[in-house]
Design brief:
- By secondary structure, the chain is α+β, with helices and mostly antiparallel strands.
- It has helices at residues 3-11, 58-71, 131-139; strands spanning 37-46, 52-56, 72-84, 89-100, 106-118, 121-129.
- Strands 2-1-6-5-4-3 form a 6-stranded mixed β-sheet.
């Protein structure tokens, strides 16, 4: 198991038997809540803009997560697997359920996200969604 896989298993609370404990909200009051993300981390993610967004910095990522949370009224994720790729990278594969707050539209889809970890912190993340999931996020705000 590489450094990235170890960190992501801890972040997502994913055990050897595949247990998953969903992280449902952002608690910015805890200074250590997001210490696993490098302050200058870069992310390439789909969200409420309906397009792939390039985010630079932990604060930009946290703002993105807050925008996504505000766009949906219900959500759940089930981690399927976390797999190390090389010394610094790992892939997270999950199933998702979302409901748009604005339209009530529901969708279930699978997502994958590639992470790079350096010196014990996430420095890069890129998600991969199918076309239906990308389109949902483009409509999520109504």
């Amino acid at each position: 198991m590489n450094e990235a896989e170890k960190l992501l298993r801890a972040v997502f609370r994913f055990g050897d038997a595949g247990e998953w404990d969903a992280i449902a909200s952002i608690d910015r009051s805890r200074a250590d809540s997001w210490v696993h993300i490098h302050p200058d981390a870069r992310y390439s993610l789909f969200g409420p803009s309906g397009t792939k967004e390039m985010l630079v910095g932990r604060d930009a990522f946290l703002d993105f997560v807050a925008r996504c949370a505000a766009a949906i009224s219900e959500r759940s994720d089930e981690i399927v697997a976390i797999s190390g790729i090389d010394e610094q990278c790992a892939l997270v594969h999950a199933r998702a359920y979302r409901r748009s707050r604005a339209t009530g539209e529901e969708i279930s889809y699978e997502w994958a996200m590639l992470y790079r970890v350096e010196d014990g912190r996430i420095t890069y993340g890129a998600d991969m969604l199918d076309a239906d999931a990308q389109a949902f996020w483009g409509r999520a705000l109504g």
